[in-house]
Specification:
- Helix content is about 0%, strand content about 35%.
- By secondary structure, the chain is mainly β.
- Among the domains are: about 45 residues, Laminin (Ribbon), CATH 2.10.25.10; about 40 residues, no CATH class.
- The strands form 4 sheets. Strands 7-8-9 form a 3-stranded antiparallel beta sheet, with no helix packed on it. Strands 1-2 form a two-stranded antiparallel ribbon. Strands 3-4 form a two-stranded antiparallel ribbon.
- A hairpin with a 5-residue loop joins strand 3 and strand 4.
- It is elongated and about 65 Å long.
- It starts with 20 loop residues before the first strand and ends with a strand.
């Protein structure tokens, strides 16, 4: 269906994006958008308003996403920077950037899981290792 045809939104499951609720009127529609979105179809996501970063981290908006900046000092095995999503934002991950500096030859750098799927980035004998099950 062409988006310029009359009533094109009636042929979509919902013209509203990012969890917006659609109200179909006679010749148009309106979307009630979640608090962290904006735009006629809730297409603009205000990532940092949903507070997606771990406690103590600073959220910086980027084009089509956000970044969380945090400092952590891991002495021996006593420190961990942990983050657990609250389910407010759901998107496919297009890229992930991790910057770090360490003197350790063995360390878990990143571990994320959902159900039985996981991704682990680690140092093993000074070499970077990636394990993934999707």
């Amino acid at each position: 269906m062409f988006k310029h045809a009359p009533f094109w939104w009636l042929f979509q499951a919902s013209p509203c994006l990012n969890g917006g609720q659609c109200l179909s009127l006679w010749d148009h529609f309106t979307c009630t958008c979640p608090s962290h979105t904006a735009g006629r179809r809730c297409e603009e996501v205000r990532w940092c308003e949903a507070a997606p970063c771990p406690a103590g981290a600073v959220c910086h908006p980027l084009h089509q996403g956000f970044e969380c900046l945090s400092n952590v000092t891991l002495l021996n095995d006593s420190g961990v920077l942990s983050y657990r999503g609250r389910g407010l934002l759901s998107r496919d991950v297009a890229s992930l950037t991790l910057s770090l500096r360490t003197r350790r030859r063995h360390a878990a750098l990143l571990h994320a899981e959902r159900g039985s799927a996981f991704i682990t980035l680690s140092l093993q004998d000074g070499r970077l290792c990636l394990e993934m099950l999707s």
